[in-house]
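TICKET: design request
STATUS: open
ATTACHED STRUCTURE:
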């Protein structure tokens, strides 16, 4: 019998961008799955000219400032913003498809974890990691099957917030 392909949101822990308004959690790390519908070509701050093929990308970050994760994720989801961070250029050019959050987590642990998968690579050295001495980049090009990615996180004991779990308020 063919194995049913997993439903990311129900089985694996991704949350959809429309849940962002209902998150009641504090600070932590997060992953944002961004899909570029066409090649991105443009200048991004100190990185200079950046060229990225169409496809799925995972941006890993953390939010420990005021507003915590909800404020940060709302910004990532919005398309009407002036680019400030590297990743803003991609969330404007592409679509945020999925998000996961790790309350109190650290984004560099997620980067380490993701790199254990052979198909992962960092297309632009330094992207999103100007302040980080540990990672090649905080933006990763990922294989189309992101279920494998979430399995890798689970193996390391990272459990993304699941839909319906405490932390996402029900719609009133
Ligand atoms: Zn890092």
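STATUS: resolved
RESOLUTION: sequence designed for all positions
ATTACHED SEQUENCE:
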């Amino acid at each position: 019998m063919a194995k049913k392909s997993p439903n990311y949101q129900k089985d694996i822990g991704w949350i959809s961008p429309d849940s962002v308004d209902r998150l009641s959690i504090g600070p932590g790390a997060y992953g944002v799955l961004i899909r570029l519908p066409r090649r991105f070509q443009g200048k991004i701050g100190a990185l200079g000219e950046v060229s990225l093929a169409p496809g799925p990308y995972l941006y890993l970050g953390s939010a420990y400032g005021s507003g915590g994760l909800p404020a940060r994720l709302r910004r990532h989801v919005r398309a009407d913003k002036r680019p400030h961070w590297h990743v803003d250029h991609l969330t404007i050019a592409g679509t945020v498809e999925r998000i996961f959050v790790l309350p109190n987590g650290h984004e560099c642990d997620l980067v380490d974890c993701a790199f254990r998968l052979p198909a992962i690579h960092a297309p632009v050295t330094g992207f999103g990691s100007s302040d980080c001495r540990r990672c090649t980049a905080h933006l990763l090009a990922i294989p189309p099957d992101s279920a494998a990615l979430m399995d890798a996180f689970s193996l390391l004991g990272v459990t993304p917030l699941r839909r319906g779990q405490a932390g996402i308020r029900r719609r009133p």
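CLOSING REMARK: Residues 9-155 form one domain. The pocket of zinc ion is lined by residues 107-108, 111, 129, 132, 134-135, 138 (CB under 6 Å).
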